[in-house]
Amino acid sequence: MDAAAIHQRLTAQFEAGVGPCDLQAKDPCVFVQPAAILDVCRFLRDTPDLDFDCLSNQSGVDYKAKGVIEVVYHLFSFRHRHWIVLKVDVPRDQAVMPTVESVWKAANWQEREIYDLLGVTFDGHSDLRRLLMPEDWLGYPLRKDFVEPEEYHGISTRRESLLR
After folding, report:
1. Long-range contacts of residues 62-67, Cβ cutoff 8 Å, at least 24 apart
2. Among 24, 30, 42, 143, which one is least packed by beta carbons within 10 Å?
């Protein structure tokens, strides 16, 4: 099943919860409203002719100029050998959306990484805490406006460039 057909099914099922489909993108994608993502993901997993049983990747992108952080889901069906990309935009200043951890266990660590590096809070997550940065680290390193502190607990964060 291709992205256009999947988009048609999602639009019929969720109406306003599903936005446009970008068929011209390198990886065709469907835009989903934050409040609808959990139900959309359950539908994609539980509908037999869709059967998206694998969350192969979940990542985030900071679009500072647009004022959003985009959470991107790459889904795959092993049975049907088809895939789809979902994209959810959340406001940078209110980056909160539901977790999909109950749909795919792989979301646990992937959402923790997005939280740690971009500051997106996933409501309902079982263990939302930093994964890569220390618990007391200030800020989110993958945000476009992040400024690295001069030091961390008295240790300089300055280092000589390896590109010389």
Report:
1. 62/92, 62/118, 62/142, 62/143, 62/144, 63/89, 64/92, 64/143, 64/144, 64/145, 67/91, 67/92, 67/93
2. 24
Q: What one-character DSSP code corresponds to residue 38? A: H
> By CB neighbour count within 10 A (0-12 exposed, 13-18 middle, 19+ buried), where does 30 fall?
buried
Instruction: Quote the distance between the C-alpha of residue 154 and its chain's center.
Output: 34
DSSP H helical ranges for the chain: 3-14, 37-46, 107-118
Q: What is the amino acid identity at position 31? A: F
pLDDT in tens, the chain (164 residues): 899 999 999 999 999 999 999 999 999 999 999 999 999 999 999 999 999 999 999 999 999 999 999 999 999 999 999 999 999 999 999 999 999 999 999 999 999 999 999 999 999 999 999 999 999 999 999 999 998 888 889 888 887 877 76
Query: Over the Cα atoms of the chain, what is R_g?
Result: 18
